[in-house]
Amino acid sequence: MTRKQTFECHKIAPGKARGQALVSGDDICFYLVDPETGVIIEEGHQAYGQSVANKVLVFPSGKGSSVVQADGLYQLQMHGNEPQAIIIRYPDTVLVATAIVIGTPLVDGLSEDFYEQVKTGDWVEVDADRGRVTVFKK
């Protein structure tokens, strides 16, 4: 039996997507994600060795300069390894602009309860246009 829980969110970049969650408590520098595999290659990162490809990526914030953030996400998209959607606690201008340009749904403003509930591997649906994130658990 699958349970689902829906949370309100704030739309930053439009769209709707569904995929498995990859949840990290560490900020992400997309330049330290291998574009050919989508795997996080930053030594010591909480999600080191895990792939962002086709995932709903949940993390606090981006890190690194604007050029490496934008180019990192762009390179992931060029290789077909970008996240399906991004849920971020503290959005920055570069990630917002890049998500809009490459067409990746991006949301923020979720309750603390969401961050306590969602785990890596959960199926998550992001409907930025309706301001909803749904977490599906078995």
Main beta-sheet annotation: 8 strands, mixed
Helix and strand pattern: EEEEHEHEHEE
Low-confidence stretches: none
Mean pLDDT: 95
The portion of residues assigned to helices is 10-25%
Secondary-structure class: alpha/beta
| Overall radius of gyration | 14 Å
How does this structure look, described?
The structure is a single chain. The protein is α/β, with parallel strands linked by helices and 138 residues long. It has helices spanning 66-78, 93-102, 112-117; strands at 3-8, 10-13, 16-23, 56-59, 85-88, 106-108, 123-127, 132-137. The chain has an eight-stranded mixed β-sheet. Strand 5 (85-88), helix 2 and strand 6 (106-108) form a beta-alpha-beta unit. The radius of gyration is 14 Å and the shape is globular.
Give a topology summary.
Elements: E1 3-8, E2 10-13, E3 16-23, E4 56-59, H1 66-78, E5 85-88, H2 93-102, E6 106-108, H3 112-117, E7 123-127, E8 132-137
Parallel strand pairs: 3-4, 4-5, 5-6
Antiparallel strand pairs: 1-8, 2-6, 3-7, 7-8
Question: What's the short story on this structure?
Answer:
This protein is an alpha/beta fold. Helices cover 21% and strands 29% of the residues. The chain has helices at 66-78, 93-102, 112-117; strands at 3-8, 10-13, 16-23, 56-59, 85-88, 106-108, 123-127, 132-137.
